[in-house]
Amino acid sequence: MAAASNAPIPVSLEPSKGSGPVDTHALLAAMLHAREHVSDLIFSPGRLPQVEIHGQLFSVEGPGLHPLSADETRRIASDLIGENKQAIAVLREQGYCDVSHGMSGLARFRVNVFIQRGSCAVVMRVIPTKIPDLATLGLPSQLEEISQFRDGIVLVTGPRGSGKSSTLAALLDRINQQRVCHIITIEDPIEFLHNHKRATVHQRELHSDTPSIALALRAALRQAPSVILLGETRERETMELLLEAAETGHLVLSSLNTMNAAQTVERIVNSFSVSEQPAIRDRLARTLRFVVSQRLIPRIDNLARVPVVEIFNAPFQALDGPQIREVLFENLRDSGSDGVTHIDAEIEKLVRTGVIDVKTALTHASDARKLKKSLADFKGLASAASN
After folding, report:
1. pLDDT one-digit tens code per residue, 130-180
2. Is the dihedral of CA 44, 46, 51, 53 positive or negative?
3. What domain range includes position 324?
4. Do the Cβ atoms of 243 and 153 come closer than 8 Å?
5. Cα→Cα distances 302→53, 163, 191, Å
6. Is 310 exposed, middle or buried (0-12, 13-18, 19+ CB in 10 A)?
7. Does residue 293 form part of some domain?
8. Of 312, 186, 163, 319, nearest to 241 (Cα)?
9. Angle at alpha carbon of residue 30, lines to 27 and 35, rounded to 5°
10. What is the pTM of this model?
């Protein structure tokens, strides 16, 4: 049954004229319409084009389609990069580049082109044309209060494909709807397009609008924004600049590829030298407002994925000095602390309500052994453990 479920998906595609290659945009459109809920498109030498749906990969087949050659993936990459000379230079120098690509009236994509074994491969993340709201994403209404913050840092974390970009877009759109303010985004590449609503929104893209994230962040501090969104925080320098921005009265939204609040704080602190770490902990304790850690887990019917969210809320406004640092790190250690919703507890609720199965729950848990112990009374545990 497993093999059948990942059988190639037929797509409707006009055959190319003569022996010429299939048109890239016609291929993208056909792949998007292969089935509902396509999240990624993948082009790799030696394989048919593939789509990802709810975390599973499927090849697509149709007239003129065959396992791609290295020349064909290079041509697709070239069509997507276009005349973006900076992206081409980055690809040559670093072996990969990120660009955005749009098809009018159909979809936008975040495109990653990279070199592997001397040839090009392409992964395209489908970006909805409509900005989602928190309710549509299945996120708790508690996050709505973020739009009222005037300063501080809000981090959305999780693994690849966990919906971090969509959550950030929903939070930013909420601010855009509610506040008269200036918003600057710095993205690699731009994903969701934000129109001016109550706020004025400027979106800057790495390589197209700025040569580096750090330069864009430094410039943003002189461009009078109330809110700064950085698509992803990766390096020590950007972490330092985010702290500086939050300390100087800006609300900063960003994402990290970490699994929970504790790991997020450790990742930031450990990016600095040992001598700098005490000061960084104090600065982080004063500026951190929310850490939202999320995952998308397959439902028991395997027809969709459900979001599971851990929320660390850091209400430190009434505290001073050492108290702030003590409360922050005590809350991160204590699974029962106020202001902390733990991801494994949310996974357990989904198991008990029949939304996800035990085997899937244990696979996605932060501490599978502890979750298994918590589910000791659950009737499905024994069968899951035997598989």
Report:
1. 899 999 999 999 999 999 999 999 999 999 889 999 999 999 999 999 999
2. negative
3. 141-341
4. yes
5. 10, 18, 27
6. buried
7. yes
8. 186
9. 140
10. 0.81
Q: Report the distance separating Cα 345 and Cα 309, nearest Å.
A: 10
Residues 109, 48, single domain; the answer is yes
For residue 159, the domain's CATH number is 3.40.50.300
Tens-place pLDDT, residues 268-286: 999 999 999 989 988 998 8
Please list the alpha-helical segments (H only) found in 131-231.
164-178, 213-220
Q: Which residues, 6+ apart, have CB-to-CB distance to 121 below 8 Å?
A: 42, 43, 44, 45, 73, 113, 114, 115
Let me know the angle formed at the C-alpha of 300 by 298 and 305, rounded to the nearest 5 degrees.
Answer: 25
> Is 163 found in the same domain as 77?
no
Can you say how many angstroms the Cα of residue 216 is from the centroid of all Cα atoms in its chain?
21
> Which of 333, 381, 377, 341 lies closest to 361, judged by CA?
381
Which has the closest alpha carbon to 57: 100, 25, 10, 9?
9
How is residue 225 written in tokens? 């924004």
Task: Count CB neighbours of 221 within 10 A.
Answer: 15
**Helix (H) or strand (E) segment spanning residue 240:** helix 236-247
369 SS3 class: helix
The residue among 127, 159, 186 that closes a domain is: 127
Pick from 106, 125, 204, 218: nearest CA to 164? 125
